[in-house]
Fold these 3 entries.
Entry 1:
Amino acid sequence: MKLKPCPFCGSRKSEIVTGSYTVDGKKTETQNVLCGNCNAMGPDTLMGEDRAAQKWNRRRSARRSKPNTKVTERLPATGTDQPKGERR
């Protein structure tokens, strides 16, 4: 299955990787997609490479995507971003 570009950086340098872990002496292999540019990883799956590709390629429709909150004010500056008299 062909992989879509990375949803974070747009790179096409993504590949399916296999990892493993052991619990109570039982080894389990997982597959997911790793972006070779920004190292973003898709969700793990135990169902093989095709399922890993399907999960990576799934994108939310732009029509349905709405922010959960509105940004109405800026957070206060911290550390050295503040003038000397206002540091905390």
Entry 2:
Amino acid sequence: MTRFTHKLSDKIKVSEFTDNTVTDALLQGALVTPAFVYDLNRIQQQLELLSGLSRRTGCRPIYSIKSQPCEAILELVGETLHGVSVSSLYEARWARERLGASASLNLTTPGLRADEA
């Protein structure tokens, strides 16, 4: 399954297509470009590898929001990994709203108080 995240007027729309229908979707206008395209199956495979690593070693993998601040990916990551890495107050609040208080929030930035996140 390939998932597309694209902007539709003022809202973000997430569409899913099988690999065989991606070209058809583009040709028929079902996918608004520009779009960020990612392979849902590949992301899930990688998350399963990280989850297995965590079980075997006790490490706690986290996701860097700065690498890809896509809410759909954050939802997948939030179900598997132990938390996120953020570098700003905005990212910290955004992650906390979506993942809840139980997720680990790793902040790397100067001058931010704990009560601001």
Entry 3:
Amino acid sequence: MIIGIAADSDAMVSKYVASIEINMLSVDYRLSPEYPYPILVYDCFDALKWLVKHAPELKAELDLFRNEDIAFGLDLLKAEVSVEMNLIRGVPHSFDSLAPNAPVPQRAFNERCRVLMS
């Protein structure tokens, strides 16, 4: 969820944490118009880097969709559908829509184009 100011989401985040006993990270990123795009993307990326660094001590699972994606890919293979799967570590789900011009999304885009053209 992207809300804006971390304090604005404290009550909602606290409810999730209490209800389903999970950890959540609430990022207080800089907002426009004072801080134009892409500053908020960099702030969120810095928070993600912090989370990756501290994941072991927080016991945080960062690959939320990995197992589901692998199972889906295996189901496709069982159905004899041609599949190429790439796991890109250290980026969140839908990372390529957050900062499409950053190096990792560009590399992923180029790799997808290569596969689609083959």
